[in-house]
Amino acid sequence: MSDLRRVLELLGEVRLRLIRIAWVLLPMFGFLLFFEIVPVRLDLFGHPVPFGYPWPSPFYNVSAQVFRLMVARMLPPGVALLNLGVGDSILVQMEIGLLLTLVVGMPWIVHEVGAFLVPALRRNERLLIRQIGVPATVLFALGTAAGLLLITPFTFVLLFKYVAAMGLAPVLGVQEFVTFALLYSIAFGIVFELPVFVYALTRLGIVKGSTWKKHWRGAILGSLIFGMIITPDNSGITMLLIATPMIALYFGGAYFAARWERRAETQRRPPAAAGAG
User: Fold this and answer.
1) pLDDT tens digits along 202-224
2) Is 0.85 surpassed by the pTM of this model?
3) Residue 91, Cβ neighbours under 10 Å: how many?
4) What's residue 272's pLDDT?
5) What distance in Å separates the CA atoms of residue 94 and residue 33, rounded to the nearest whole number?
6) Range in 35-44, 119-128, 148-157 with the lowest mean pLDDT
7) Is 125 inside a domain boundary?
8) Residue 248 lies inside a defined structural domain of this protein
């Protein structure tokens, strides 16, 4: 009976945390789908300052504005986007709105998940989470930004060069464009978490630092397979675009994990006995 009571209390705590997350994220999601940001310029001490204010707009909303920005920044000139399905434009706005909601609301999600997990963690695990929290967030942001601003636009340029070489019309479905752009960019954010993952496993004593170096061949093979799965073509070029930084990040994480392990062993080693004099 006591076990059932603990399970019910745990489920109740999970329900409470999910409700608290929903109370924050759902208004964000609704704002992105039903408001637009109207740009204006304010005159501040004689200097024009860009500013924006929200205005109700269920069709041309924030998600639509972000979509147009993605098209302008990612696709080569001359590429036409087609609305192939009746509801593709609505699904695209919802996908972009969901991603933006998760990105903006991630600190609150992390806070609620941490508040749920911390009581069950040991002291060293809580300390590790506090230490890697900021680096993990920064690396994910850098990886996603690199995917959105650099790698994904370069990938589209590269792929449409093959289209031009074949003499084909440069067209793309809007749903296919947004899905690939978002997944590809998020994949880079996840890849940039690899050194934190490697370091954390060594800090927790699950994987020895020397093991990462020992199995470097498997890491390279795994990076190539991951790149092959996440990329849309079979040329191997885009696969290398995601596998190469993944391999470099793996070795970076392995280096810091091994360095921490050496330092921990030095601290645990008893001091040499002083010689009799």
Assistant:
1) 887 788 878 888 888 888 898 88
2) no
3) 14
4) 52
5) 7
6) 119-128
7) yes
8) no
Quote the tokens at residue 3: 């076990």
How far lies 228's CA from each of 98, 157, 200, in Å?
26, 19, 26
Task: List the domain range (segments joined by +) for residue 114.
Answer: 2-192
Task: Copy the structure tokens of residue 184.
Answer: 């590809």
Residue 3 to residue 270: CA distance in whole angstroms: 44
Give the contacts of 24 (CB within 8 A, at least 6 positions apart): 105, 108
Of residues 192, 207, 206, 202, the one with CA closest to residue 261: 202
pLDDT at 277: 43
Whether 227 maps to a domain, the answer reads no
Residues with Cβ within 8 Å of 141's Cβ and at least 6 positions away in sequence, in order, are: 189
Q: Report how many domains make up the chain.
A: 1
What is residue 62's predicted lDDT score, i.e. its pLDDT?
93
Q: What are phi and psi of 79, to 5 degrees?
A: -80, 130
For the cut 90, the answer to whether the pLDDT of residue 65 exceeds it is: yes
**Three-state SS for 263?**
helix
